[in-house]
């Protein structure tokens, strides 16, 4: 063998090793990416199912229910394509979701009403709305939702967030009134009024604001009634004030007589 031939063999061997290493690297990256995508899709599937099943009935509409079904169906189809193997559970779910999606606007809303009466409950629903926002954004990124439709639903999610706060402050105030705590009720209604006044677009919430202001005025009147002294008050404070008035009259007479 000539030195040139040996050199070419060495170079070819090095190139082959580099090519094999590169191909292994690409294959490994694909494997890692596939595993990451599977984890992400399974997480999205769980979130979509949770949203569809646990979202409060008073905020759920047939249109929203249909949207959540479509989002979940999109994730299921991507999972089936990615797994490339039979998965009876996920395929059965695909059949169920396709049947629901075929109902269109006639889809039934079975979510129970879940009153928002505590701050913890309000936070839980807010987290659900945040998760819904994330799913709509990802679906638009995947091409499962058109940009215009995604923007529409993002506006609707923001509106639901406002409705969440309205219900929370109203319930909080009514609970306080029922417990004969007008001061606490006034605080709740004040928070509601301030929240509605701070909305970027206050016009759609004008009627809600007026109703909340009426509740605030009612609670405030009850607070004032509770603290106003009456003719029948005979506590130590009022007796002390009367005694002071008597002393004052005596001193005036002593000076001017």
Q: How far is the N terminus from the C terminus?
A: 143 Å
Q: Kindly provide the radius of gyration, computed on alpha-carbon positions and rounded to a whole number of angstroms.
A: 34 Å
> Which word captures the global form?
elongated
List low-confidence stretches: 240-257
Keywords: Membrane, Transmembrane, Transmembrane helix
Transmembrane segments: 6-27
List the helices and strands and how they pair.
Elements: H1 3-54, H2 62-83, H3 88-102, H4 119-142, H5 147-178, H6 182-197, H7 206-227, H8 236-256
Helix pairs in contact: 1-2, 1-4, 2-3, 4-5, 5-6, 5-7, 6-7
Description of the structure:
The structure is a single chain. The chain has 2 domains: 10-114; 117-228, no CATH class. Helix content is 79%, strand content 0%. The chain is built from 8 helices and no strands. The N and C termini lie far apart (143 Å). Mean pLDDT is 84; it is low at 240-257.
Distinctive features:
disordered C terminus; membrane; mainly alpha; transmembrane helix; transmembrane; single chain; 257 residues
Short description:
Helices cover 79% and strands 0% of the residues. It contains 8 helices and no strands.
